[in-house]
Each structure stands twice: as C-alpha cells, then as structure tokens.
Amino acid sequence: MAQSFKAKILPSAETLIDSALRKAAKKAGMKKTAKEKEMARVLTFYGEIGKKLASAHDSLPRIDKMHDFQKELAELTIGLADLRRVLAHFRKSRKIIAKLKKETIYKLENTTANNEIRRISREFLGRAISVVKKLDRSIRLYNEYVRKLREIPDVRYDIPTLIIAGYPNVGKTTLLKTLTGSKPKIAAYPFTTTKLNLGYMEKNAMELQVIDTPGLLDRKLSGRSNVERKSVLALKHLANAIVFIIDPTLTSGYSIDEQERLLKEIKKQFAVPILVVISKVDIASEEEIKKASEVAEKLGLECILNNSKTLKERIWNLTTESANHLRK
Question: What are the OBG-type G domain coordinates in residue numbering (predicted)?
C-alpha cells in the first residue's frame, strides 16, 4: 500500500553536527581509558549522523512504490529527479562516513599511545564534519521538498474511490453527506486554493472512498494553467468511477448546455464509468428533469435521480465493479 508523505524536517547541517558532537562527548565521558573514550566518541558521532540521514531517506515513500496519483503530483510539485539527487547525496554521505568510521576504529584498535589515539579521533571528526557540512544545501532542498509533498492529499489507495463532479452549487456536498452519513474530512490539493472533501461508505465490512472535488472538476480545463490542468488530471489515477451531478433547475447558475459541455469534457478525459445524478428533483419540474436526463442519454450514460431508493446501491456497485475490473 502506498505511504503518505509524513517525513520529518531535518535540522541544518550545523545543528546536526553540534547535536552529534554533544552526544559523542557525553558518551565518551562515561568511559575510562583514552581508547574507550575515543572509540565511543567516533561510534556515537557516526551513529547520530547516520541515523538522521537514514530516517530522512526511509521516511519518504520509495518513488517506485508510490501510487500513480502520488507520483504525478510529486513530479508536478518538486520534480522527482531533484528528489532522487538529494536522497542520493544522503546515501553517498552515509557511506563515506561509514567508511571513515570503519577505518578509524581499526586504527584505534591497533594503537596504544594516548596522544595518537586522540589524533586519530580528531582526524575522523574533522573529515566526517566536512562531509556533513557539504550536505547543507541538500538538507535545505530536502526540507523544501518535504513541505511541498505534504500538500499532496492524504487519501487512501487500498479501497475503491468514487469522485463527485459537477459545477458549484449543484448538490455535490449534499450527495457526499447522503452517501457517507458523516462530516467530510478535508484535504488540501496542490496548485489550487481549494480542498478535497473526503468521506467513506461502508458495506459488509468493506469501504469505499468518496471524494468531492470543489474547484477541480467543477469547471472546464481550458483557461487553467498547464500545471493546474495536469494536477486536476492526476485524479484519473485515483478515480474508479465518477458521479456527475446535473442541476435541472438552473438555480446553481449554470445552464443545461454548460453542464453538458463540462460532462463531455470529463467523459473525454476520464476512462472510468460515469453515473449522472440529477439533483434538486424535489423542486424541479418534470420538463426540467426530462431535459437533464436527455443529456445523459445523448452521451450514452446511465442516469438516476438523487432521491432514488437505489442511489447508494447503484453507486456502490458501479464503483466496486470498476475497481475490481481495473485490478484484473
């Protein structure tokens, strides 16, 4: 299962060095002989630096294990090649310090003179500190990348996902609450000022993720910047099915023709089943409902009223069947 981006921010190179030196000095102070003290100092310094660099590397999802949705947004957000270079610098630095440590311990084990023991230890610290100082720019870049990657929505990739689309004020939030029966979880979305609304349906110990996308699939892609357009299309890696809501009453401020054009665009961009849900049927006339249903019929899409008793079941079956088909 894909991991979320929860990596910790790294201290600066200077702070890393100061912290490792303090802990190394404390450990050395607990030993009796010069050799024991300096071996403890070397091992502790190496351990502290290695641990920090390893945790930074290991806390990020492996790029080859990322979900396609994560990977596409990460590429847009920071550029995965840049992230690879930073992580490679961390790995290389750990290996260099590990080699220095191994060589130093060997020398200490085979030295008896106290002044030589201290010289060998100081030499290790000087060379190891130089390696860490050269990491300063990579650490700053890593921290910048982590902050940006945290903007990628923390969604689930292990369960089927339904995405709700349609113009603003057509009834998307109402449908989300109807389907999930709970207050939605809010998640930020890169390159937009909007947030995803997440909810979950449950049936027979199974879950289905429902995502309302205000500001994303609620207007045409034309007119958006290239980066914003790509970030919206990243949703194709997440969606197993789409519910497109049409407001037949036009109280949302959008004509049937406008809603049809948006539906056509989404149908063109997303190769998943689409169910058209006609909203506000309690205040819509028969003629308005008929016009809305004709839009779905014209595009060869199934249509259902938002007050239908089978609405939840139809949405559940559509999404889970699509997810099962895609896994085959």
Answer: 160-328
CB atoms within 10 A of CB 86: 23
pLDDT tens digits in sequence order for the chain, 328 residues long = 455 567 788 999 999 999 999 999 999 999 999 999 999 999 999 999 999 999 887 888 778 888 888 888 888 888 889 999 999 999 999 999 999 999 999 999 999 999 999 999 999 999 999 999 999 999 999 999 988 888 888 888 899 999 999 998 999 888 999 898 877 777 766 656 567 888 999 998 899 999 988 766 666 666 666 666 777 777 888 899 999 999 999 899 999 999 999 999 889 988 999 999 999 999 999 999 999 999 999 999 999 999 888 999 999 999 999 988 766 5
CATH 3.40.50.300 in the chain is located at 161-327
Distance CA 299, CA 263 (A): 9
Using a cut of 0.85, tell me whether the model's pTM lies above it. no
Fold exhibited by the domain 161-327 = Rossmann fold (3.40.50)
In this structure, which amino acid lies at residue 81?
Answer: A
Residue 16 neighbours by CB under 8 Å, 6+ apart: 10, 48, 49, 52, 132, 135, 139
User: Is the CATH code 1.20.120.1190 the one for domain 13-149?
Assistant: yes
